[in-house]
């Protein structure tokens, strides 16, 4: 396409040169032949050497002009020759549009108008076309269902946002899973000039469930057929995209193609780039009817208003019913039905140039869609093999895809200058809260982190779990960063129950985690682990935000608030479920304490019983947690009593107490003001005490902390005096807030702190 545009520009430049260069030259010469309003002869024969006007200099100028005129005439002669050659080649060159090869000119939609456009110069891709208004909203519809498709949508949206210059309105036809994931993602992404609307895909199932479909997309692969009914009645046009699409240009260029539709053209589609619909891929291959090679529905331009007037709903249903009598089922979901309709009504389709849907499927002819990288506009991974598909240039396509896959989504939060965004309550509240902070405050960065909105992708991997029907189920809750991934397999081996994890990762690290998890037999065999990605932003580790995210997305009535560096004892999951019943946790405000121990050895023969643990404790292989550096953090657990205890026992809150507890899912959240290292768990236990939770130690439960390198945050705490000062300030402010909220009873926390 690009090459042809360049050719046409040369054609136009040549024409202009032929017309205007001689004219300009003669005007210049003519003007130069007048001096003081009188004509000056250019002929040497007419010159007057003895005239005072005549000089050697003016003679040289005239000779120079005559030489230049001869050069211009010679250039014009060459240009005229090139122009005549270009004109003679033009029709035959463009005629290739009607062959079955994928020329770069493909997709004009109307062969007659194409030929007219070549002559008139205003119907080609390079000609004048109505531009998209600067702040015109572009509407995009995507059908999305499940966990994996939700990840694909994010990469697609990133590629669109990266190139876009216009406001966007995404219409997402999503099932309950995808809606939960994507609603949270876009709410926390907070991209200006982007609006999201959801439509319940499950409610649409009845519209297409009568159509048997063999395609891997399942019932959701048929839902593009019902968009005229699903999308708002006042929406006139929309771009429909598959989730496995990557944009390499501004989507506004595709939106502008709507202006080229003529007559009854209501569907903008790219021709299918495989031989599927030709029926010659294998013996007895019998595809659905299609016009020639058929059309691919990975990228569709829909004129909704005209489709509704044409009774599209009735049109596709009648066609599907008729063809299913002989075909029995669809092989390529909605694409088969779209093609069957087009076969009967070819006037409906406007054929898009094939670079708007470069299809990387098996047996593809996509290489004929581009000559250079700059020709690419949309890449479609429409093979079940996805990135593993065989293609001559697949490495380039894969690298382009991976660029957006790992691209920092926070960088896409840029404003569209000159296009006011719709009022967003969350964004306005955030700006108000930030404006109230004092930027000269030495603890400003700490305070700001409390209000930072971190982009969050829930259920990054497939999750499938139904809580036990006896209402005793417990979810292990923890948070981690990239340097603790090695703990995941061990925890899964120790805890067979559901797990909710919040991971603090960059976009690139999230993909590394995905590859790590997919390569682990242990992790892939567990579908009851919810992985929630909280994307990195700012300089602090938002430990309590991560805990809150993991807590919020559990499906069980109880949760075990742990840390990623701890391995629970074997059988702890079942033991806690029994303890929940025994201690009537459903009807009482209790926090069940799991005593914490630690080892300094990287290789540990994990104790299989309390007796074995006590033996290792006596031998010095194990220690009570933080015995050497922070004794009072777990001292109230009363380990001496625990050694001989056979029944649960109650302990009282003390200053700096931070045990690991089992609580109901309705317990208070962690306080977000505490980031990095220090007081993040202490503050939470203090609030549980203020709400009159009863702390009960479990006599036959334990967990062991495994050694690891010091975290970056504890290093900052130890080395940075200002860090410690700010932590002390935040701690005092938290205690004051507790006093205001809980009244007289909370004064004990100030007293205890002063005495500690």
TrEMBL record:
<feature type="region of interest" description="Disordered">
    <location>
        <begin position="42"/>
        <end position="65"/>
    </location>
</feature>
<feature type="transmembrane region" description="Helical">
    <location>
        <begin position="12"/>
        <end position="31"/>
    </location>
</feature>
<keyword id="KW-0812">Transmembrane</keyword>
<dbReference type="GO" id="GO:0000139">
    <property type="term" value="C:Golgi membrane"/>
</dbReference>
<comment type="pathway">
    <text>Protein modification; protein glycosylation.</text>
</comment>
<protein>
    <submittedName>
        <fullName>LARG1 glucuronyltransferase</fullName>
    </submittedName>
</protein>
<dbReference type="InterPro" id="IPR002495">
    <property type="entry name" value="Glyco_trans_8"/>
</dbReference>
<feature type="region of interest" description="Disordered">
    <location>
        <begin position="84"/>
        <end position="109"/>
    </location>
</feature>
<keyword id="KW-0511">Multifunctional enzyme</keyword>
<comment type="similarity">
    <text>In the N-terminal section; belongs to the glycosyltransferase 8 family.</text>
</comment>
<keyword id="KW-0333">Golgi apparatus</keyword>
<dbReference type="InterPro" id="IPR029044">
    <property type="entry name" value="Nucleotide-diphossugar_trans"/>
</dbReference>
<keyword id="KW-0328">Glycosyltransferase</keyword>
<keyword id="KW-0472">Membrane</keyword>
<feature type="compositionally biased region" description="Polar residues">
    <location>
        <begin position="44"/>
        <end position="58"/>
    </location>
</feature>
<dbReference type="GO" id="GO:0042285">
    <property type="term" value="F:xylosyltransferase activity"/>
</dbReference>
<keyword id="KW-0735">Signal-anchor</keyword>
<dbReference type="Pfam" id="PF13896">
    <property type="entry name" value="Glyco_transf_49"/>
</dbReference>
<dbReference type="Pfam" id="PF01501">
    <property type="entry name" value="Glyco_transf_8"/>
</dbReference>
<keyword id="KW-0808">Transferase</keyword>
<comment type="similarity">
    <text>In the C-terminal section; belongs to the glycosyltransferase 49 family.</text>
</comment>
<dbReference type="GO" id="GO:0035269">
    <property type="term" value="P:protein O-linked glycosylation via mannose"/>
</dbReference>
<keyword id="KW-1133">Transmembrane helix</keyword>
<dbReference type="InterPro" id="IPR051292">
    <property type="entry name" value="Xyl/GlcA_transferase"/>
</dbReference>
<keyword id="KW-0325">Glycoprotein</keyword>
<dbReference type="GO" id="GO:0015020">
    <property type="term" value="F:glucuronosyltransferase activity"/>
</dbReference>
């Amino acid at each position: 396409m690009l090459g042809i545009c360049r050719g046409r520009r040369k054609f136009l430049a040549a024409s202009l040169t032929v017309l205007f260069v001689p004219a300009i030259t003669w005007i210049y010469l003519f003007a130069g032949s007048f001096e003081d309003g009188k004509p000056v002869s250019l002929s040497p024969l007419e010159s007057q050497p003895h005239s005072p006007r005549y000089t050697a200099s003016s003679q040289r100028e005239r000779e120079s002009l005559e030489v230049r005129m001869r050069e211009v005439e010679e250039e014009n002669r060459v240009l005229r020759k090139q122009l005549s050659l270009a004109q003679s080649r033009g029709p035959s060159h463009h005629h290739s549009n009607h062959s079955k090869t994928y020329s770069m000119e493909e997709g004009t939609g109307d062969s007659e108008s194409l030929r007219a456009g070549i002559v008139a110069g205003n119907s080609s891709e390079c000609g004048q076309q109505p531009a998209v208004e600067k702040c015109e909203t572009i509407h995009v519809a995507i059908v999305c269902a499940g966990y994996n498709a939700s990840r694909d949508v994010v990469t697609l949206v990133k590629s669109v946002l990266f190139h876009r210059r216009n406001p966007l309105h995404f219409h997402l036809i999503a099932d309950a899973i995808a809606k939960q994931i994507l609603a949270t993602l876009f709410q926390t992404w907070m991209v200006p000039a982007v609006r999201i609307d959801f439509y319940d895909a499950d409610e649409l199932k009845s519209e297409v469930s009568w159509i048997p479909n063999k395609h891997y997309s399942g019932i959701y692969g048929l839902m593009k057929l019902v968009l005229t009914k699903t999308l708002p009645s006042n929406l006139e046009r929309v771009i429909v995209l598959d989730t496995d699409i990557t944009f390499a240009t501004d989507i506004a260029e595709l939106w502008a193609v709507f202006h080229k539709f003529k007559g009854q053209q209501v569907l903008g589609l790219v021709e299918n780039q495989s031989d599927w619909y030709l029926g010659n891929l294998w013996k007895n291959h019998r595809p659905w009817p299609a016009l020639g090679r058929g059309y691919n529905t990975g990228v569709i331009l829909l004129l909704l208003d005209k489709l509704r007037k044409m009774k599209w709903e009735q049109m596709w249903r009648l066609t599907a019913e008729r063809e299913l009598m002989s075909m029995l089922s669809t092989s390529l979901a909605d694409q088969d039905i779209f093609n069957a309709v087009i076969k009967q009504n070819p006037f409906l389709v406007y054929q898009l140039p094939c670079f708007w849907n470069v299809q990387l499927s098996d047996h593809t002819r996509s290489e004929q869609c581009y000559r250079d990288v700059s020709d690419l506009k949309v890449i479609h991974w429409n093979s079940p093999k996805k990135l593993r598909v065989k293609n001559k240039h697949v490495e380039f396509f894969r690298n382009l895809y991976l660029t957006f896959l790992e691209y920092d989504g926070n960088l896409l939060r840029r404003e569209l200058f000159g296009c006011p965004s719709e009022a967003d309550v969350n964004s306005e509240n955030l700006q108000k809260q930030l404006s109230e902070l004092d930027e000269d405050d030495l603890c400003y960065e700490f305070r700001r982190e409390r209000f930072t909105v971190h982009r969050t992708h829930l259920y990054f991997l497939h999750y499938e779990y139904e809580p036990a029907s006896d209402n005793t189920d417990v979810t292990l809750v923890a948070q981690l960063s990239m340097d603790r991934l090695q703990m995941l397999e061990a925890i899964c081996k120790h805890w067979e129950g559901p797990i909710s994890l919040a991971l603090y990762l960059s976009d690139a690290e999230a993909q590394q985690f995905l590859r790590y998890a997919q390569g682990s037999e242990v992790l892939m065999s567990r579908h009851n682990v919810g992985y929630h990605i909280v994307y990195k932003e700012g300089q602090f580790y938002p430990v309590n935000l991560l805990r809150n995210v993991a807590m919020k997305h559990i499906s069980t009535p109880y949760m075990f608030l742990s840390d990623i560096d701890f391995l629970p004892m074997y059988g702890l999951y079942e033991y806690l479920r029994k303890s929940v019943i025994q201690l009537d946790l459903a009807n009482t405000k209790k926090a069940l304490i799991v005593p914490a121990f630690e080892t300094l050895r990287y290789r540990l023969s994990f104790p299989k019983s309390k007796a074995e643990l006590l033996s290792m404790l006596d031998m010095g292989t194990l220690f009570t947690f933080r015995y050497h550096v922070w004794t009072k953090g777990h001292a109230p657990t009363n380990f001496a009593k625990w050694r001989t205890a056979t029944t649960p026992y109650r302990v009282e809150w003390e200053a700096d107490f931070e045990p690991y507890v089992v609580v109901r899912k309705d317990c208070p959240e962690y306080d977000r003001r505490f980031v990095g290292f220090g007081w993040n768990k202490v503050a939470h236990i203090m609030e549980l005490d203020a709400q009159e939770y009863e702390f009960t130690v479990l006599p036959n439960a334990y967990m062991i902390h495994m050694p690891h390198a010091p975290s970056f945050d504890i290093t900052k705490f130890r080395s940075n005096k200002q860090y410690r000062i700010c932590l002390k300030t935040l701690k005092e402010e938290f205690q004051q807030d507790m006093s205001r909220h809980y009244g007289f009873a909370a004064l004990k926390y100030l007293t205890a702190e002063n005495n500690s």
